[in-house]
């Protein structure tokens, strides 16, 4: 479980490429190393990965086929930088919102508007079906960052980034056309899916009742 408050960035220093499988070795920030052990969970651009090896500040993580398919991690090259967050502990301050580290898709950066103290980024979701989870003033995870959703138009939505977010994360370096990892707020997803199931059940019951009232020939 994560909070969406990025704790630092880590450089990808080596990649071991295999069919439908990758091992990433990153240089973790020194302040995130204490207590880090094999099997620990670390968010990379919002994706929950498991520590598989530790050699000083060089930490290894395995990426399986599903991770490579759903996230942007498989497209990273040596030297790339990722947002990282250690797993939350009970009693920690939740400054963002609870996140699982399960990426649902990637979204394309469609527009960027920059002003003196703010940056607005518009993102295009790959499927209109996913937009039912994107609600005005709701939460969303972008590259592991907990953000509040601004305007929502068709299959696009925007977020506003303050200078602190631009400075501490990789979003300040993103450009038009870049793909970013998206995690839907799990509570929003649960509510939307539950309402859909209830409504579908009611419609089916009403249809069955109406059919029962039709005189049989």
From TrEMBL:
<dbReference type="InterPro" id="IPR026017">
    <property type="entry name" value="Lumazine-bd_dom"/>
</dbReference>
<feature type="domain" description="Lumazine-binding">
    <location>
        <begin position="1"/>
        <end position="97"/>
    </location>
</feature>
<keyword id="KW-0686">Riboflavin biosynthesis</keyword>
<dbReference type="InterPro" id="IPR017938">
    <property type="entry name" value="Riboflavin_synthase-like_b-brl"/>
</dbReference>
<feature type="repeat" description="Lumazine-binding">
    <location>
        <begin position="98"/>
        <end position="195"/>
    </location>
</feature>
<dbReference type="GO" id="GO:0005829">
    <property type="term" value="C:cytosol"/>
</dbReference>
<comment type="pathway">
    <text>Cofactor biosynthesis; riboflavin biosynthesis; riboflavin from 2-hydroxy-3-oxobutyl phosphate and 5-amino-6-(D-ribitylamino)uracil: step 2/2.</text>
</comment>
<comment type="function">
    <text>Catalyzes the dismutation of two molecules of 6,7-dimethyl-8-ribityllumazine, resulting in the formation of riboflavin and 5-amino-6-(D-ribitylamino)uracil.</text>
</comment>
<keyword id="KW-0808">Transferase</keyword>
<feature type="repeat" description="Lumazine-binding">
    <location>
        <begin position="1"/>
        <end position="97"/>
    </location>
</feature>
<feature type="domain" description="Lumazine-binding">
    <location>
        <begin position="98"/>
        <end position="195"/>
    </location>
</feature>
<keyword id="KW-0677">Repeat</keyword>
<dbReference type="InterPro" id="IPR023366">
    <property type="entry name" value="ATP_synth_asu-like_sf"/>
</dbReference>
<dbReference type="GO" id="GO:0009231">
    <property type="term" value="P:riboflavin biosynthetic process"/>
</dbReference>
<dbReference type="InterPro" id="IPR001783">
    <property type="entry name" value="Lumazine-bd"/>
</dbReference>
<dbReference type="Pfam" id="PF00677">
    <property type="entry name" value="Lum_binding"/>
</dbReference>
<protein>
    <recommendedName>
        <fullName>Riboflavin synthase</fullName>
        <ecNumber>2.5.1.9</ecNumber>
    </recommendedName>
</protein>
<dbReference type="GO" id="GO:0004746">
    <property type="term" value="F:riboflavin synthase activity"/>
</dbReference>
